[in-house]
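This part of the workshop introduces the protein records we will be handling. The question running through the whole workshop is how a given chain folds. To make this concrete, we reproduce a full record directly below:
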Amino acid sequence: MTAATVEPEERRREQRAWNWYDWANSAYYTTVLTVLFAPYMITVAGEAAGCVDADDTCSKTVSVLGLDVAAGSLPFYLTSFATIASAFILPVVGAFVDRSAHKKWHMAGFAWAGSFFCALLFFLRGDQWQLGAFAIVVSSILGGCSLVSYYAILVDISTEDERDAVSARGWAFGYLGGGLLLLLNLVMVLGHDAFGLSKGMSVRVSLLSAAVWWAGFTIIPLLRLRDREPQGVVREDGSLFQRSFGQLFTTLREMRRFPMTLTFLVAYLFYNDGIQTVIYAASTYGSKQLRFGDSVLIATILLIQFVAFGGALFFGRMATTYGSYRTILWGVVGWMVIVVAAIFLPEKNVALFLVVGIAIGIVLGGTQALSRSFFSLLIPRGREGEYFALYNACERGTSWFGTFLFGLVFQVTGSYRPAIFALIVFFVLGGLLLVRLDPRRGIEEAGNAVPAVV
């Protein structure tokens, strides 16, 4: 049964249910991975390393699998390892998902397993960093696995013409949910004395709250989505695990038959790497180059979260009129303007810094949401899990390019201004590849119906 054969009201009901998983998992990515985990892990590992004041930058080392790692670098090595491991694991998971008639259960299973390991971060205290290190790596990988199934379900519950709006609403819902929990957690962490908590305990409770939020709200899409039989799967012999690997290798061989799909995937790798690096580097640029305090940076993070909610919806409406392909291209141009504007920001000018934050929020949710929906149009039916796994795996496997370039330019120039400007190369390369792409041809080659507006 395809989405087009389902009654519109039934599709809308499932689409609303599907949106709840964006709401559920965004709490983990905002509260844990983006804001609270890294500084707290540095504090705990710093105590284990013997730093005099673990809240300061610590260059003393802890031993990780026999290697000496600076306590101040530990969380970044852990997330990098999880990212690289995901690049190998996710494609196999995607091939498995394509052959299953229980995508929603795979989504929920990976989500609950990930939230369990996330909950173990509550025990990250004193100088006991090892359990937290293991938990963050495993929870990050499992979170990526859950998204493979989640993205694949998008194709089952929406027609080609609906896909942009559904993806945009989901992404907007995710920013709203993630931003709401982050706001509550930051209030608790910054005002921990008023709640009768130590700073460390307030952080641990916040990390635990993200796990509970993730697990709890996953129940909604699990109950309201329907499982469907797989379609268009290439026949492979052997066990389900062996067939999953066989399908993966078949798809990798056949990707040359879909040059537009491959072109978009490479374009996405470039401009998404630029997006992720801008987000990653924004706090460093604001604190070290523009001399803002923590209060301004925290306010900007929250502002971006909530503006991104409206930005995703705005881009979704733009795509309805102009098509997702053109809207993504305009979004990439918007990122170029933001990067150029950032290098001219004067120090300690809060108003202009917030204006740039608003601009980031507008294009952030929109470009990511429409990239997801547009890529779904370029995927052959029955290969959604595997192609979205490649989409996520390639994104994770190359996400260090931007941070490497940012660090390298700073090392050479001694200033963060040319370092932030250097990121424009990712948006230029991504934009040039998008210009070369023929969206209608790509959709037709994948065997999908071309939307009324591409």
